[in-house]
Amino acid sequence: MVKKLENFIKKSYLLLIFIFLYTPILALIIFSFNDSKTMGKWSGFTLRWYADLFQNERILQALFFTVVIAIISSVIATIIGTLAAIGINKMKGPKKALLLNINYLPVLNPDIVTGIALMSLFIFIRPLTKLDFGFTTMLLAHITFNIPYVILAVLPKLRQLPENIEDAALDLGATPAYTLRKIILPQIKPGIFAGMLMAFTMSIDDFVISFFTAGPGVTNLSIEIFAMARRGIKPEINALSTLMFVTVLTLLLIANRKEFLSRGDKIEKA
What is the number of alpha carbons within 13 Å of residue 262 lying toward its C-beta? Predict the structure, then answer.
């Protein structure tokens, strides 16, 4: 009886958490089909906001820059962050502790501090590099603040590796490059993938750093939505958010389905 009560409490608590998390998203999805421009009144079912979305060049341009910068910055940050994590993991003593603390600073720093610092840096090097504010500066800023998150995602997987795995590979005749490609990277692949997803999500979600490093003609969804907030969020944003949520959910279901099938195959072979 006590166990049943505990299970009921645990399930109820978990259900409340999911309700708290997903009720706002559900409300957004419902009102993306609302015929009214305001979310305070239901005026009937419609799909016109989805049609208007694909005719709104401003939102589509912001979406294009958002996705392109997120993809490029997450890939580059993943490569740099993974190599940096491998190097940090090989260090010992005060040097390792110092680098880890330096890596924590951008994560713990308020975004506004990082955004102003990057803006100041680009202004300082502008006479030397002739680098104007725009796509390149925003991309460099996103790469910069994504790298620490990739490092933090990869390091735990490196710590789980056997201590002598590299030495064993080198003793068997493998070169350092071959050991890295065929032994180390496959073992830490989940951490690398998690770091890339985190970097991609952070890049899409970012507003403050993008706001301080963007230039004329370059914007992203967060900046565009912030500009709309003064006049009221357009219903097209609800439609766009719904499509993004459905796309991410579909990709997660496909990825989990593949993992589930692969585990089933391993169990059958065993």
Answer: 6
Give residue for tokens 């493998």.
Answer: 174
Assign residue 41 a region: left if phi > 0, alpha if psi is -120 to 50, beta otherwise?
A: beta
Tokens for 125, please give them. Answer: 């090097």
| Residue 95 included in any domain | yes
In a structure prediction context, what are the per-residue pLDDT tens digits for the chain, which is 270 residues long? 677 778 888 888 889 998 998 898 898 888 888 888 777 778 888 888 899 889 988 889 999 999 999 999 999 999 999 999 999 988 888 888 899 999 998 888 888 999 999 999 999 998 888 888 989 999 999 999 999 999 999 999 988 888 788 878 877 788 888 888 888 888 899 899 889 989 998 999 889 999 999 988 888 889 888 888 777 778 888 899 899 888 888 877 886 776 666 655 555 555
- Contact present, 162 and 117 (Cβ < 8 Å): no
N-terminal to C-terminal alpha carbon distance within the chain = 38
Within a domain: 245: no
> Minimal CA–CA distance to 118: which of 140, 101, 99, 149?
140
CATH of the domain at 65: 1.10.3720.10
**With contact defined as beta carbons under 8 Å apart, do 120 and 137 qualify?**
no
CA–CA distances in Å: residue 206 to residues 9, 92, 115, 216: 37, 34, 10, 18
What domain count does the chain have? 1
d(CA 148, CA 40): 41
Burial category of 16 from C-beta neighbours within 10 Å (exposed 0-12, middle 13-18, buried 19 and up): exposed
- List the domain range (segments joined by +) for residue 121: 59-234
Q: Would you say residue 43 lies in a domain?
A: no
